[in-house]
Amino acid sequence: MKKAIFPGSFDPFTLGHADIVRRGLQVFDHIVIAVGVNEHKQGWIAAKERLRALRELYKDNANVSVERYEGLTTDFAKRCGAGFILRGVRSLKDFEYELDMADVNRQLDENLETVVLLAHPELSAVSSSMVRELHHFGHDIQTWLPENLNYKL
Ligand code: ADP
Q1: Residue 43's domain is classified under what CATH number?
Q2: What's the per-residue H, E or C state across 29-63?
Q3: How many structural domains comprise the chain?
Q4: Is the residue at 151 inside a domain?
Q5: Disulfide check for 123: which of 16, 90, 140, 146 has CB 3.0–4.6 Å away?
Q6: In a domain, 97, yes or no
């Protein structure tokens, strides 16, 4: 079985992230959405709420699970029994970052392969930070989130 982890902050999880999961399932049998939590960084949406809302969103999809993780992504992938790290790329800037991350992760675990999917052109401007900013200025952010994803903000 081809299993990948899709690590990120997902603060919040956007239409862009959902598109990567949907298309990733054409490549992998199972995707673990790995919600990265840093004890020293609060984040915008509390980690517990990020997990709750995502588990609710994917509750009927047996090929997707949602887990919290702290520490090294490679360690988490190993604990999950995943052979792949799935990531998305929107721009050259993303690409450079992902290249560096993939290099480091390969050094930590050479059996772990990073697979990058290119963002859908219509979603390449969507980012969690943009959604947070829009919310800050009073916009309805649901347009940028999967329809059935409901955060208690
Ligand atoms: P991180 O904090 O690790 O950068 P994010 O939650 O911002 O995590 O994003 C997780 C992954 O999803 C990253 O690989 C990021 O490039 C990708 N991603 C974010 N937004 C989009 C989008 N609109 N389309 C495709 N991929 C995206």
Answers
A1: 3.40.50.620
A2: CEEEEEEECCCCCCCCCCHHHHHHHHHHHCCCCCC
A3: 1
A4: no
A5: 16
A6: yes
Residue 81 predicted with pLDDT over 90: yes
Asked if the structure places residue 153 within a domain, the reply is no
Which amino acid belongs to residue 141?
I
Q: Please check whether residue 70 lies inside any domain of the structure.
A: yes
102-123: buried (b, 16+ CB within 10 Å) or exposed (e) per residue? beebeeebeebebbbbebbeeb
User: Could you read off the pLDDT of 43-74 as tens digits, one per residue?
Assistant: 999 999 999 999 999 999 999 999 999 999 99
pTM of the model: 0.98
- Give the residues surrounding ligand 1 with Cβ less than 6 Å away: 8-10, 14, 16-17, 20, 87-90, 94, 119, 123-124, 126-128
What confidence tens digit (pLDDT) does each residue in 102-150 have? 999 999 999 999 999 999 999 999 999 999 999 999 999 999 999 999 9
